[in-house]
Design a protein that fits this description.
Oligomer: single chain
Pfam families: Branch
Strand content: 15-25%
Number of domains: 1
GO biological process, one term: chondroitin sulfate proteoglycan biosynthetic process
Strand order of the largest sheet: 3-2-1-4
Number of strands: 4
Enzyme class: transferase
Pathway: Glycan metabolism; chondroitin sulfate biosynthesis; Glycan metabolism; heparan sulfate biosynthesis
Protein name: protein xylosyltransferase
Largest sheet: 4 strands, parallel
């Protein structure tokens, strides 16, 4: 409203509020990155979004922590399958593709966009 030449349509604000965008985040974590994961999760969390977490097959301790963490939220799920991933390798691509397949089959999660993140990512 600061620009006098631009007319603000009040109806468009109502439309935007009524039709919120829902994001499905796929979080791929490994090692002992639970503190990194929690820090990033806290920064991106919103009750209207969805969070699908894959824990590397070689990270059993982290997997147990993530399972406990996910129980606290109705919009967080952990993949029922696990792969051993290598950064930049085909296994990481396979993990993301399987995660996307899973998300497309989750009819109870009405998401609009997909964002993939690792525990090392942090929004700025």
């Amino acid at each position: 409203k600061a620009n006098k030449n631009v007319q603000w349509d009040e109806d468009s604000v109502d439309y935007m509020l009524a039709n919120r965008v829902r994001i499905a985040f796929v979080l791929v974590v490994h090692g002992r990155a639970s503190r990194q994961l929690q820090r990033m999760f806290k920064a991106i969390y919103h009750k209207d979004h969805f969070y699908y977490i894959h824990v590397d097959k070689r990270s059993n301790y982290l997997h147990r922590q993530v399972l406990q963490f996910a129980k606290q939220y109705s919009n967080v799920r952990v993949t029922p399958w696990r792969m051993a991933t290598i950064w930049g390798g085909a296994s990481l691509l396979s993990t993301y593709l399987q995660s996307m397949r899973d998300l497309l089959e989750m009819t109870d999660w009405p998401w609009d966009f997909f964002i993939n993140l690792s525990a090392a990512d942090y929004p700025i």
